[in-house]
Amino acid sequence: MIGYGFMGKAHSNAWRQAPHFFPLKAEIEMHTICGRNAEALEQARVKYGWKNACTDWRQVVNSPEIDIIDIATSNLTHAEIGIAAAKAGKHIFCEKPLAMNLVEAKKMLEAARKSGVKNMVGFNYRRVPAIAFARKLIDSGKLGQIRHFRGTYLQSWVADPKFPMNWRMRKETAGSGAHGDLNAHLIDLAHYLVGDIAETIGLQETFIKERQRESQAIGLGASAGKGTEKVTVDDASVFLAKFAGGKNIAPGAYGTFEATRLAPGHKNYNRFEINGSEGSLIFCFERMNELEYCNRTDPPDQPGFKTIMCTEKVHPYMEGWWPPGHVLGYEHTFVHEVVDLVNAIADGSPLQPDFLAGAKCVAVLESAVKSTQGGRWTKVAEVK
Description:
Layout: H1 6-21, E1 32-34, H2 38-48, E2 52-54, H3 57-61, E3 68-71, H4 78-87, E4 91-94, H5 102-115, E5 119-121, H6 129-139, E6 146-154, H7 171-174, H8 178-193, E7 197-205, E8 210-218, E9 221-230, E10 236-243, E11 249-260, E12 269-276, E13 279-284, E14 290-295, E15 306-309, H9 330-347, H10 355-374, E16 378-379
Parallel strand pairs: 1-2, 3-4, 4-5, 6-11
Antiparallel strand pairs: 6-12, 7-10, 7-16, 8-9, 10-11, 12-13, 13-14, 14-15
């Protein structure tokens, strides 16, 4: 695993826990964790349970003892590491967004296809049992034809103007701000639950244009240093989207997407609502074990939404966990990713979301940015 910050912690826990709760078709050895700071890396190795530590990712990628490369680094390095891993014949698990831009994403997709390795992008919300169950309801036709997708992702971790800089606030290392960090998740969920997006038009704003430089930053935390620095990414991003035609999609179906890191009171408010001709679904990650469902044909004396507690053994992934009503948390979504990845590698079964899905998400992100610059509807570049 390359990277030991916020995502490195989440992924390490997943690699460690997966074999204890799910039947895996291959054994896992947590061989090597990789990062640039040798002292901090060694602390992470011991804390997270890795066998070895290495400060050169190239040695890790080229090691004959390693089969899977888990990329949990900043966005800037995804393409270089991912392409090298594919050329070395390693299976790849890469955090989202897949790449800094569509050019890089397509190169990663091409390299993975050429080598034939399994590849997966870390859109962990697909592995929330309630969201996986929402997909089942939609596929079964319970919602009829989908007309609206309404996605909102609100956070507040940089709402304080005194919060110092972080790599996520620099365009050269993150690519974009709330747009690529948060809207990427909403876009992937829309692709997963509804279908491909054809066109976008949007707005973006950077409200806090300058911040103190950091003296140290890891994960979502930072301490202030000396001097100030210009913020070069968006604080908030909103766009409209038109869906392409397809199964369960009504002609003219559209989506709304809003992401901000400046919403006081919201820590990780990842919420979507889907309206179809026969019913609706509502999900919010801050109540991640619940899915709200409305059937339009309910009796007139029983209208409205009902809350489904998605912790029964019949719900996706729940067979590995606790008795009904004993809820899951954020960390479990990463365990589910590891389970699906390892088993797909072992038995050759299909795996989603792959680099194609990741590249399609990047194409929508780019389309929305271009639309803010041109002030007009912008087509999403086709990725095959």
